Amino acid sequence: MTKFDNLLVAERIKICRKNSGYSQEELANLLGMKRTNIANYEAGRIIPPGNIIVAMSDIFGVSTDYLLGLSESFNDKVDSEELKVIQRAKTKMSDDDWERAMKILKLSFVEAFDDEDDDEDEDI
């Protein structure tokens, strides 16, 4: 990561912590670490390891992509229970039924799918 990326991650961690109403000490306790770790993350001196990013994502209710500066939307976190329901349904469907379901979704919610680079959509 570049220095700019470090500072973006640091800024997002600090903003999320403050928006969630936690002190550095409280967040550190939730993560099982020392307050100085949080201070180092927020100063951009250290990028948190993946497991800490995931834990912060859960605590703050934001996506890991947002914390890492890969997304501008802080609330694009997908509910894992919803994903499990969809995955279970997919295992029960034939390939043809799944394709039909995806076409219906894409036609019904064009804006949500408009940024895909999927050449198969051209025959819809």
From TrEMBL:
Domain HTH cro/C1-type: from-to ranges: 13-67
Q: CDD domains under this entry?
A: HTH_XRE
Determine if Transmembrane is one of this entry's keywords: no
SMART domains cross-referenced by the UniProt entry: HTH_XRE
Tell me which Gene3D superfamilies the record gives: lambda repressor-like DNA-binding domains (1.10.260.40)
Matches recorded under InterPro entries: Cro/C1-type_HTH, Lambda_DNA-bd_dom_sf
Q: Does the keyword Signal apply?
A: no
| Keyword entries, A-Z | DNA-binding
Q: What is this protein called?
A: Transcriptional regulator with XRE-family HTH domain
Starting at the broadest rank, the lineage of the source organism is: Bacteria, Bacillati, Bacillota, Bacilli, Bacillales
